[in-house]
C-alpha cells in the first residue's frame, strides 16, 4: 500500500493505542488541533481526550509527567512539537528519564517514548531549525531512533514501546510528506542500521532527513559511473557499528552525511568508530558532509548553503575517489 | 486610487488619529504579507496580528522612546511602531540583506537593538527572562527605563513565566509584563490550558500590580498601559497587564484553523479595532470618511514603497554565510549603552 510517512506514523500510533490500554499520547495540540504536523489527526475522535491528551505549553512539565506516568505503569508516548522546544524539557529527559534506572540501582524502568520533529529546510529560522539528535545520542540510558523511510515510520513505534527504557524518536520535518510503498514486512529491528542501496566504491552513511539526499546523490553518482553503498544509520544510540564496519570492509571508503553541525557531531562519532574498528580497511581518510557552523539562516539561499545538499555529497564522494 | 485630501503630518495629529493611522499601517502591512506569502515571496512561519492591532498600538504609544521592548514571533506590529522601518521589516520577510535582521531572522526574528527592540522570539516564553535581565541591567546601572515584555496567554503556562515574574517581583524590577490574551495558543483554548483562567489573579499571586483592558479598544489599551507604565517607571516594581483580544486569522499560514467556531470569529470581527475606533471618532465628529480614506491611502502607499524596496534589495552573497556567528575582534561586545 502506498502512503505518506505521516500516515505511516499515524497507523503505528493507532495500532499502539488499540493494542495496549496503557498507551496514551500526550503533547501540545495533539488533539483538537490535530497535531502540529497533522500526525495525530483523527485520533482524538477515535480514542478520546484521556488518551489523546492536549497539554498546555509546559514542555518541562508534561515531559516530566510522562516520565512519572511511565514509572507508574503506563506506556506514554509524549510528543514534543519539535526538538527546538525539547530544550525546555531537557532537564527531565536527561536528569530524570535517562538516569532513574541507574540511580535507583535498577529498581525501576522508564518505558517512555518521546517523539519530536527535527531539522531545517523550511525557512523557519534559527530557533525552529535545529538538528540536535547528537545531544540525545550522547546520553547513556536512552535509545535514539531516526526513521527515514515510510516503513520505519510504520515499524519503529512498536519496538520502541516494547523497550523498557526511554526511547527518543526523531521525525525529520521534511519527511512527513514523503510517499512510498509500505512493504509487507515493515517490522523494524531497532538495534540495527539498514543498507538502503548496494555499491562497491564507497559507503555513504546518513540518517533522517539526509537519507533521501544521500540516495539522490547515489543516483547521480551512478549516472556518472560511481557506485556507492548507502547505509541508513536509523539507530543513533546505540550506534550499530557492526553494520557500519561491514560496509566499510566492503567499500574501503566512508562519507558521513549529517544535518548536525560538524563540531561534536554524530558524524564525528561515527568516523571515530570507523577509525577505531577498521582503520586498516580504509583506502582514504573518511569524509563528512555536515551543516556549516552557523545558526540556520532564514533566507532561502543561505539556508540551503548551510545544510548538507546532494551536490555536496556527490562532490565529497568524488573527492574521496579522486574522480 | 481615489484622489484624497492630503492628511496632516502625522506628528501634529491628535492622539486618536495617530492610533488609528498606526493600526491601519499594521493592518495593511500584514494583509500585504499574507498576499506575498501566497505568492511565495515570504516563507517560513508567518504569524499575523490581524485583529489584535489595538494591543500593540495602544501599548507602544504608551512607552517612551528609550524604553525596552521584548516581543514574540507575532511581533510585526510592535516592531513597526517602535520605529523599525516598514521597508526594513518587509526586506526581512523577503530574506534580504537590507532587512532589519539582515535576512537571517525572518518574520519571527525582527530585531532593532538601536531602538531597543530586542526581538522577535520564536520560543514561547523565551523573551520573559530576557526582559527581567534587561531591567536588572537598567537597575544596576541606575537607568530609569521600563522594559515592556509582550507574550501570549499560552506562555503563562510555561515555567519561564513563573520564574521570570517571581524574579522581577522579588527584585522589584521595572518590567511591564504585557499579556496579549487572544484566547488561543495555536489550537488550545485558554480554559483547556490554564487551571486559573483569570490571568490577573494568576499574576497577582506574585504580588505585582495587575491591570486589564479591552484589547479591541485602542484607547482603553493606551490608557491602561500608560497607567501601568507610569507605576513601573515610578519605581513601583513590575506590573502585569492583560489585554483581551482575538486574532482574526489562523495561528500561522500552516494552520487550517479547525478548532474555532466560525460564529465566534465573526462575533469578534464585529469588534474589530480599526472599525470600532473609526466609528467612534466619526460619531464624535472627529473623523469623516474622506479623512479615513486619506489615512488608509497613506498606509497603502507606505506598504507599496516597502514592498518595492524589498523587491529590489539585493540578496546577501552566499560567501557571507558564516558572518555574524561570533563578534569580530575589536568590535564592541554586547548590549547597547
Ligand atoms: C517552547 C515552545 N513550545 C511550542 C512552540 C510552538 N508554538 C508556537 S506559537 C504557540 C502558541 C502560543 O500561544 P500564545 O502564547 O497564546 O501566543 P499567540 O500565538 O496566541 O499570540 C505554540 C504552541 C514554541 N514556539 N515554543
Ligand atoms: Mg494566544
UniProtKB/TrEMBL annotation, chain A:
Coiled coil: none annotated. SUPFAM superfamilies: Thiamin diphosphate-binding fold (THDP-binding) (SSF52518), TK C-terminal domain-like (SSF52922). It holds the Pfam family Transket_pyr. Keywords: Oxidoreductase, Thiamine pyrophosphate. It comes from the Bacteria. Residues 3-178 form the Transketolase-like pyrimidine-binding domain. One of its GO terms (molecular function) is oxidoreductase activity. Its cofactor is thiamine diphosphate. The keyword Oxidoreductase applies. InterPro entries: THDP-binding, Transketo_C/PFOR_II, Transketolase-like_Pyr-bd, Transketolase_C. NCBIfam families: PRK09212.1. PANTHER family: PYRUVATE DEHYDROGENASE E1 COMPONENT BETA SUBUNIT, PYRUVATE DEHYDROGENASE E1 COMPONENT SUBUNIT BETA. This is Alpha-ketoacid dehydrogenase subunit beta. It comes from Thauera aminoaromatica.
Automatic annotation (TrEMBL), chain B:
GO terms for biological process: pyruvate decarboxylation to acetyl-CoA. GO terms for molecular function: pyruvate dehydrogenase (acetyl-transferring) activity. The pyruvate dehydrogenase complex catalyzes the overall conversion of pyruvate to acetyl-CoA and CO(2). Its cofactor is thiamine diphosphate. The gene is pdhA. It catalyses: N(6)-[(R)-lipoyl]-L-lysyl-[protein] + pyruvate + H(+) = N(6)-[(R)-S(8)-acetyldihydrolipoyl]-L-lysyl-[protein] + CO2. This is Pyruvate dehydrogenase E1 component subunit alpha. It holds the Pfam family E1_dh. Residues 22-316 form the Dehydrogenase E1 component domain. NCBIfam families: PDH_E1_alph_y (TIGR03182). It comes from Thauera aminoaromatica S2. Keywords: Oxidoreductase, Pyruvate, Thiamine pyrophosphate. It comes from the Bacteria. Heterodimer of an alpha and a beta chain. Its EC number is 1.2.4.1. It is an enzyme of class 1 (oxidoreductase).
Amino acid at each position: 500500500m502506498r502512503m505518506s510517512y505521516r500516515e505511516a506514523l499515524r497507523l503505528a500510533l493507532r495500532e499502539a493505542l488499540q493494542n495496549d490500554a496503557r498507551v496514551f499520547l500526550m503533547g501540545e495540540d495533539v488533539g483538537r488541533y490535530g497535531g502540529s504536523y497533522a500526525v495525530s489527526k483523527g485520533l482524538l475522535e477515535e480514542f478520546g481526550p484521556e488518551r489523546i491528551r492536549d497539554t498546555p505549553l509546559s514542555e518541562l512539565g508534561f515531559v516530566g509527567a510522562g516520565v512519572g506516568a511511565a514509572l507508574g505503569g503506563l506506556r506514554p508516548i509524549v510528543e514534543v512539537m519539535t526538538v527546538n522546544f525539547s530544550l525546555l524539557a531537557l532537564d527531565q529527559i536527561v536528569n530524570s528519564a535517562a538516569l532513574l534506572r541507574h540511580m535507583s540501582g535498577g529498581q525501576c524502568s522508564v518505558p517512555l517514548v518521546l517523539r519530536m520533529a527535527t531539522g531545517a529546510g523550511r525557512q523557519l529560522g534559527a530557533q525552529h531549525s535545529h538538528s540536535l539528535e547528537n545531544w540525545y545520542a550522547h546520553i547513556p540510558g536512552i535509545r535514539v531512533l531516526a526513521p527515514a523511510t515510510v516503513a520505519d515510520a510504520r515499524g519503529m513505534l512498536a519496538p520502541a514501546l516494547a523497550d523498557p527504557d526511554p526511547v527518543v524518536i526523531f521525525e525529520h520535518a521534511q519527511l512527513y510528506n514523503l510517499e512510498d510503498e509500505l512493504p509487507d514486512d515493515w517490522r523494524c529491528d531497532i538495534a540495527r542500521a539498514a543498507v538502503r542501496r548496494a555499491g562497491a566504491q564507497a559507503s555513504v552513511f546518513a540518517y533522517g532527513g539526509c537519507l533521501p539526499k544521500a540516495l539522490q546523490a547515489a543516483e547521480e553518482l551512478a549516472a556518472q559511473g560511481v557506485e556507492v553503498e548507502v547505509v541508513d544509520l536509523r539507530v543513533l544510540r546505540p550506534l550499530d557499528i557492526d553494520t557500519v564496519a561491514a560496509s566499510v570492509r566492503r567499500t574501503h571508503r566512508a562519507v558521513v552525511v549529517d544535518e548536525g553541525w560538524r563540531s561534536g557531531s554524530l558524524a564525528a562519532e561515527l568516523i571515530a568508530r570507523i577509525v577505531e574498528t577498521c582503520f586498516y580497511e580504509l583506502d582514504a581518510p573518511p569524509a563528512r558532509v555536515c551543516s556549516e557552523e552557523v545558526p540556520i539562516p532564514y533566507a532561502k539561499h543561505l539556508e540551503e548553503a548551510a545544510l548538507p545538499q546532494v551536490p555536496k555529497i556527490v562532490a565529497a564522494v568524488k573527492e574521496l575517489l579522486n574522480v | 486610487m481615489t484622489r484624497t485630501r492630503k492628511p496632516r503630518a502625522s506628528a501634529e495629529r491628535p492622539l486618536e488619529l495617530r492610533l488609528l493611522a498606526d493600526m491601519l499601517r499594521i493592518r495593511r502591512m500584514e494583509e500585504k504579507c499574507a498576499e506575498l506569502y501566497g505568492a511565495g515571496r515570504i516563507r517560513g512561519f508567518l504569524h499575523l496580528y490581524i485583529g489584535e492591532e489595538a494591543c500593540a498600538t495602544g501599548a507602544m504609544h504608551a512607552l517612551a522612546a528609550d524604553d525596552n521592548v521584548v516581543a514574540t514571533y507575532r511581533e510585526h506590529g510592535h516592531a513597526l511602531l517602535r520605529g523599525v522601518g516598514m521597508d526594513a521589516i518587509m526586506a526581512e520577510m523577503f530574506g534580504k540583506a537590507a532587512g532589519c535582521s539582515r535576512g537571517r531572522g525572518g518574520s519571527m526574528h525582527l530585531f532593532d537593538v538601536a531602538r531597543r527592540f530586542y526581538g522577535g522570539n520564536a520560543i514561547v516564553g523565551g523573551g520573559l527572562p530576557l526582559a527581567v535581565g534587561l531591567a536588572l541591567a537598567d537597575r544596576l546601572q541606575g537607568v530609569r527605563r521600563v522594559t515592556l515584555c509582550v507574550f501570549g496567554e499560552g506562555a503563562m503556562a510555561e515555567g519561564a513565566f513563573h520564574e521570570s515574574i517571581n524574579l522581577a517581583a522579588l527584585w522589584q524590577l521595572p518590567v511591564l509584563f504585557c499579556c496579549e490574551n487572544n484566547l488561543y495558543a495555536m489550537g488550545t483554548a485558554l480554559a483547556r490550558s490554564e487551571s486559573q483562567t483569570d490571568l490577573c489573579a494568576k499574576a497577582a499571586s506574585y504580588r505585582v500590580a495587575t491591570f486589564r483592558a479591552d484589547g479591541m479598544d485602542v484607547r482603553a489599551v493606551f490608557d491602561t498601559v500608560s497607567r501601568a507604565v507610569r507605576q513601573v517607571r515610578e519605581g513601583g516594581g513590575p506590573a502585569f497587564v492583560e489585554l483581551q483580544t482575538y486574532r482574526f486569522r489562523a495561528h500561522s499560514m500552516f494552520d487550517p484553523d479547525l478548532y474555532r467556531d466560525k460564529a465566534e470569529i465573526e462575533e469578534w470581527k464585529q469588534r474589530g479595532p480599526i472599525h470600532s475606533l473609526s466609528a467612534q471618532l466619526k460619531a464624535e465628529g472627529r473623523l469623516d470618511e474622506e479623512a479615513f480614506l486619506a489615512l488608509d491611502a497613506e498606509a497603502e502607499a507606505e506598504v507599496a514603497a516597502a514592498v518595492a524596496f524589498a523587491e529590489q534589495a539585493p540578496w546577501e552573497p552566499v560567501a557571507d554565510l558564516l558572518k555574524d556567528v561570533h563578534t569580530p575582534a575589536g568590535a564592541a561586545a554586547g548590549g547597547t549603552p
